[in-house]
Amino acid sequence: MKAHDGMYIDGTWRPAAGSGVIEVVNPADEEVIATVPAGTVEDVDAAVRAARAALPAWAATPPAERAARLAALRDVLLARREEIAETVTAELGSPLKLSQTVHAGVPVAVAGSYAELAATYAFEERVGNSTVLHEPVGVVGAITPWNYPLHQIVAKTAPALAAGCTLVVKPAEDTPLVARLFADAVHEAGIPAGVFNLVTGLGPVAGQALAEHPDVDLVSFTGSTAVGRRIGAIATGMVKRVALELGGKSANVILPSADLSRAVNVGVANVMSNSGQTCSAWTRMLVHRDRYEEAVELAAAAAGKYGDRIGPVVNARQRDRVRGYIEKGTAEGARIVAGGPDAPREKGYWVRPTVFADVTPEMTVAQEEIFGPVLSVLRYDDEDDALRIANGTVYGLAGAVWAGDEAEAVAFARRMDTGQVDINGGRFNPLAPFGGYKQSGVGRELGAHGLTEYLQTKSLQF
Ligand code: NAP
Ligand code: MG
């Protein structure tokens, strides 16, 4: 058990203002592995002041130099990837292989993409008799969740730094250790003091203080819709910029001409990965009624193979919440064909990979984000019916379409109300804009679109 102290503020680890601590628990066995300080309003204020003081110099740093610092950051993340993977596994519970490839691997790619973008982006353009300057928004307050703990920090930090913004990050209370490791990486990469600051703490205390701070120009939040709504209201009331990455209930639409076995197997893997704790997971599988029973059998077999290889969910509250949803699915008439609500182990926050058949669109398990290893398989009559079901939730973050012919899948994808669609199993692209339609959020992350979130324009007329 390691008792960490200090907040990373103004380029050093300095003592926290208060004496409160947060216990970090390994979800696999419920052991307390570390403690970190619980930040207060004073810590947040100190961090925001440091970010404000560092802003003019960082904003004036030539983009090529900001790019060089981001490239150095990418290199440190790459060099420390084993330590990063082990840390995420310890505090999130994800299997080590997933931690290595995704939790440690994706941030390297994203940091690298912003090193490149900072060097090549047109921060100045000519429009008629005007020169338009793309300037940094200012001080950013970033509030991040635990499900992809380093990715979500890097997906905000890297574009903010590329744009010339400075920032304060408040990571999730469940996963502060990889956030601390990231602060060390930022330091090692030679990013100037005050440009990046980290305050660990509780959402309603440190998170709220950051969102409400008058010297924060943009709040970027990823997490639950409930908290996102509050943060949106605070930011709008104070006329701050706000970016929200919220939940999802994405549809995996398997058209009749698709390779059913492949679509179902990839679909199940997509949901079970990271124990279902993925906002963009395809948690609703839509299958034509003629192939429905076959798909359900394939999905049950695929889920049955996972056992506890997927890892636990993050904490006791999430476990109870997910199991509550599984019970609710049964109560509303859905049929469990794999898994179920019972605990597979005595210790740790484990949930069995679960598949529901006979799910109808209005059921709770077809409407609400469960954030656990639970797949709902729904039946559709024809393409229009499939589209109605696919678009029939308050969310619109991601999705998938499978068809024998790519053009057929694309035609369907064009009609979906959602921010991303994978065609016949298309791969994750760290340069493609990521973000939601409808209540899945406001704004976009990643790539050039993610960079523009951190920029504001100034037009000079000649
Ligand atoms: P959450 O409470 O929304 O947590 C996200 C971040 O917001 C954390 O850093 C959290 O701090 C902070 N926060 C909480 N209350 C706050 C407040 N009043 N003001 C400012 N910041 C605040 O999410 P959660 O409770 O961990 O998870 C609940 C559900 O949210 C999940 O079951 C899932 O449905 C959804 N979720 C979605 C995503 C996504 O990627 N879209 C990610 C995670 C969760 P603490 O860590 O201290 O709570
Ligand atoms: Mg919370």
Molecular structure report:
The chain has 462 residues and is an alpha/beta fold. The protein has 2 domains: 2-246 and 440-461, Aldehyde Dehydrogenase, Chain A, domain 1, CATH 3.40.605.10; 251-429, Aldehyde Dehydrogenase, Chain A, domain 2. Helix content is 42%, strand content 20%. Helix 2 packs across helix 6, helix 3 crosses helix 4 (96-120) and helix 9 (260-272) packs across helix 10 (292-304). It is globular and about 65 Å long. The protein starts with a strand and ends with a strand. Bound molecules: NADP nicotinamide-adenine-dinucleotide phosphate and magnesium ion. NADP nicotinamide-adenine-dinucleotide phosphate binds next to helix 7 and helix 8. NADP nicotinamide-adenine-dinucleotide phosphate (NAP) binds at residues 143-147, 170, 172-174, 202-204, 207-208, 211, 222-224, 227, 230-231, 245-247, 279, 318, 369, 371.
What is the CATH topology assignment of the largest domain?
Answer: Aldehyde Dehydrogenase, Chain A, domain 1
The CATH class label of the largest domain is Alpha Beta
* Main β-sheet description: 7 strands, mixed
The number of distinct β-strands equals: 21
Any chance you could write out the topology, listing elements then pairs?
Layout: E1 2-3, E2 7-9, E3 12-14, E4 21-25, E5 32-37, H1 41-60, H2 63-79, H3 81-92, H4 96-120, E6 124-127, E7 130-136, E8 139-143, H5 149-163, E9 166-170, H6 176-188, E10 196-198, H7 203-212, E11 218-222, H8 225-237, E12 241-245, E13 251-254, H9 260-272, E14 284-288, H10 292-304, H11 316-331, E15 335-338, E16 354-359, H12 364-367, E17 374-380, H13 383-390, E18 399-402, H14 406-414, E19 422-423, E20 441-442, H15 447-452, E21 455-461
Parallel strand pairs: 1-5, 8-9, 8-11, 9-10, 11-12, 13-14, 13-18, 14-17, 16-17, 18-19
Antiparallel strand pairs: 2-3, 4-5, 6-7, 7-21, 12-20, 15-16
Helix pairs in contact: 1-7, 2-4, 2-5, 2-6, 3-4, 3-6, 4-5, 9-10
NADP nicotinamide-adenine-dinucleotide phosphate (NAP) binds next to helix 7 and helix 8.
Keywords: Oxidoreductase
Protein name: Aldehyde dehydrogenase
Active site: 245
